[in-house]
Amino acid sequence: MEFYKSFFLTHPSSVQILIFGALITSLWLAEGLILAIPVGKKWRHTFTNMLFIVTALPVQLFMTMFVLLEAAWISQNHLGLLQQLPRHQSILIKYVVGFIMLDFCKYLYHVIMHKVGVLWKFHLVHHTDQKLDVSTTVREHPGETFVRMCFLMLWIAITGASFELLLLRQTIQTVSNITSHTQFRLSDGVDKWVGLIFITPNIHHVHHHYQLPYTDCNYGDVLSIWDRLFGTYGKLKPDDTVFGIDTHPDTNVCKSFIKVLQIPFVSKRV
Ligand SMILES: [Zn+2]
Ligand SMILES: [Zn+2]
To answer: Where are the transmembrane segments (predicted)?
Structure first.
């Protein structure tokens, strides 16, 4: 037991990659089998998205070293908002309040990525997928990976998130991100209740609609409460939802890994 505990605590990236890989593979297979999508067609789409792992993963792993060093230093010096709260050693403050704080930070990050022109050029790569499925989760420009990790370091400095909280958060976040990109949708009845608190596929699919104002709604990461609180919650029927982004409608560009990688350096938001 001690071995597993110490492994999970010393190999956070390995654990995430393991969970990520197992979940994404099983959901990918389920999408193909249950929704009867031809394997060849699905594989071509997935292959383009999987290439983004090759460029983003080294950045993610490199930056993780700094994130872990920072989290250790912050904890040792009792810095950050969480440390200032009464009973800050309790599980409620350390994990529950900490998780909610970090989720709000991620919401804020997503809004910033949409509203700041230069950052949007990198984030829109995620939105160029015209066929949303579980593989869209990994469609992230390495430039955004770098920016996301820099912001994470800022959130750690502000909140004082511990290493254990970050590990818990990353694990739940990864599962949530993967499931919110699947082609499976919840029934309206279930979505009505689950979506009150959590981001569901039904909610995140609206964020991937190709036109404003829907692209600029449902920014939530794990919790949907921030969109409801700050008026960015949006609904759209599945039949009216068209995936992609209107500024980059060319399917040949969106299907090409190299061309999509170049988007931040050659295009402007219309
Ligand atoms: Zn977005
Ligand atoms: Zn997405």
So the answer is: 15-39, 51-72, 149-168
Using CA atoms, how far apart are residues 28 and 88, in angstroms rounded to an integer? Answer: 41
Three-state helix/strand/coil letters over 205-229: HHHCECCCCHHHCCCCCCECHHHHH
Ligand nearest to the CA of 120: 1
Record the pTM: 0.87
Q: What is the whole-number distance in angstroms between the Cα of residue 203 and the centre of ligand 1?
A: 12
Determine the longest span between alpha carbons in the chain, in angstroms: 56
User: Relative to the alpha carbon of 219, which ligand is closest?
Assistant: 1
- pLDDT on residue 3: 46
Q: Is the pLDDT of residue 268 over 60?
A: no
119 pLDDT exceeds 90? yes
Instruction: Give CA–CA dist 134/240, Å, rounded.
Output: 20
Say how many Å lie between the CA of residue 181 and the centre of ligand 2: 6
How many Cβ atoms sit within 10 Å of the Cβ of residue 135?
25
Six token digits for residue 145: 């990976």
Rounded distance, CA 224 to CA 154, Å? 22
266 Cα to the center of ligand 2, angstroms: 22
Tens-place pLDDT, residues 175-192: 899 999 998 899 999 999
Distance 223 CA to ligand 2 centre (A): 14
